[in-house]
Automatic annotation (TrEMBL):
GO terms for cellular component: nucleus. Residues 380-399 are annotated as: Disordered. The keyword Transferase applies. GO terms for biological process: methylation. One of its GO terms (molecular function) is histone methyltransferase activity. This is Methyltransferase domain-containing protein. Pfam families: Methyltransf_11, PRMT_C. Keywords: Methyltransferase, S-adenosyl-L-methionine, Transferase. It comes from Glossina morsitans morsitans. It comes from the Eukaryota.
Length: 399
């Protein structure tokens, strides 16, 4: 709007009485959203968009996977699932894709359409709003699915169910590709007394009153924060490899044995889950990680505190079982239960140590925490540099 038109509107509003207000017309649904709407569609909030784009580890990994594999994208039909503002769709178009369908159920797509138009890709990228299970693509087959499908602890709030649906309905049976297509979930023991005291034990005595009933609630909720390498007590242990090329919804029920080899003495306050992500179809090895040795991502690490902390000795071994699953038949990954059981000693004379269950029902990541960690861990804002494959900590993956 020109300054002349703005002055005219202001003058007009001032002559219409004290009850009138000056407003700029809203042009699309995302601009009409209010504070009541954003809790239901947080991904349309500009701060959430910025938070996602500032995760350089993840963004540059996708950029490298697409632009370093132009021979795979050139002339192909691509589905960018849960596209957000369409950055990965833009990468695909830049890599030479013939057609790109950018699909998202969020009102963020109204920004996506403007971004696509402003960058001159209207003839290649078609932005579509809706659930993937309810829309129809104007093609019978697609060549590639690009989706940032990973959630907290890999599964929580993941969109891998959408990827499996799109794969079965549209992806070419022979030669179809998923970017990324594999991920491995790990568990390790940690010492985190300070955080536990500040967020769990604190409820035992609040301004002179016993609020232990709220401690019982707090201990059942996972925490998302940055775990330092020196807090790890054990080697990391792989508990699940998820391959979206052939996985089914039943594979999203994770039930695994584990073995934790303690590397030092300390006090085990809980366990931590993190994951590695692989673009296995890339012509060069490409992956990134959310482990404590790697640069921070929006996923941080997911920490589950034990009710009673345990003293552990170096070279001691703890083992048991862990499972992650949705209690709903619809595989609702917004709602995940984690069951955990731990034993100690020789299998013939095993001693029961502890059992816990936690409930992942919503994200608890304060945006300010994520912004702080991401800004600290990344360098330039334009994401122009390439990302190296994640740095594997030698001797910490049990093969």
């Amino acid at each position: 709007m020109s300054s002349r038109k703005l002055k005219k509107l202001l003058k007009c509003s001032g002559q219409c009485g004290n009850k009138s207000t000056f407003t700029i017309p809203l042009t699309n649904p995302v601009e009409k959203m209010t504070s009541l709407d954003f809790p239901k569609d947080g991904r349309a909030h500009i701060e959430m968009v910025a938070q996602s784009l500032k995760d350089k580890v993840r963004i540059v990994s996708f950029k490298s996977a697409i632009l370093h594999n132009k021979h795979l994208f050139r002339g192909r039909v691509v589905l960018n699932l849960n596209c957000g503002v369409g950055l990965f769709a833009l990468f695909a178009a830049k890599a030479g894709a013939a057609r790109v369908f950018a699909v998202d159920n969020s009102n963020v797509v109204y920004y996506t359409k403007l971004i696509v138009q402003n960058n001159g890709y209207n003839d290649i990228i078609q932005v579509m709003k809706g659930e993937i299970t309810q829309i129809e693509l104007p093609v019978d087959e697609i060549d590639i699915i690009v989706c940032d499908w990973m959630g907290q602890a890999l599964l929580h709030q993941s969109t891998c169910v959408d990827v499996l649906y799109a794969r079965d309905k549209w992806l070419k049976k022979s030669g179809g590709l998923i970017f990324p297509d594999k991920a491995r979930l790990f568990v390790a023991a940690i010492e985190d007394e300070r955080y536990k005291n500040r967020n769990i034990e604190w409820w035992n005595q609040v301004y002179g009153f016993n609020m232990n009933c709220l401690r019982e609630v707090a201990i059942r909720e996972p925490r998302y924060h940055s775990v330092k390498v020196e807090q790890l007590l054990s080697k990391q242990y792989p508990i699940q490899m998820l391959n979206l090329n052939k996985a089914t919804c039943e594979d999203l029920y994770i039930r695994s044995k584990y073995k934790l080899h303690m590397q030092r003495c300390g006090r085990m306050d809980g366990i931590v889950l993190f994951f590695h992500v692989y673009f296995s179809k890339s012509h060069t090895r490409l992956a990134f990680s959310t482990d404590p040795w790697s640069p921070l991502t929006n996923s941080l690490q997911t920490v589950f505190f034990l009710d009673q902390s345990l003293s552990v000795n170096v070279n001691s071994v703890y083992y048991g079982g862990i499972e992650l699953y949705s209690p709903e038949s619809s595989h609702n990954l917004e709602n995940i239960i984690i069951n955990f059981e731990m034993l100690k000693g020789e299998p013939s004379h095993a001693e029961f140590e502890t059992a816990m269950n936690w409930h992942m029902i919503s994200s608890r990541i304060p945006p300010c925490v994520v912004f702080k960690t991401i800004d600290r861990s990344n360098n330039e804002a334009d994401g122009s540099q390439d990302v190296n494959p994640f740095q594997k900590h030698k001797g910490n993956v049990l093969k």
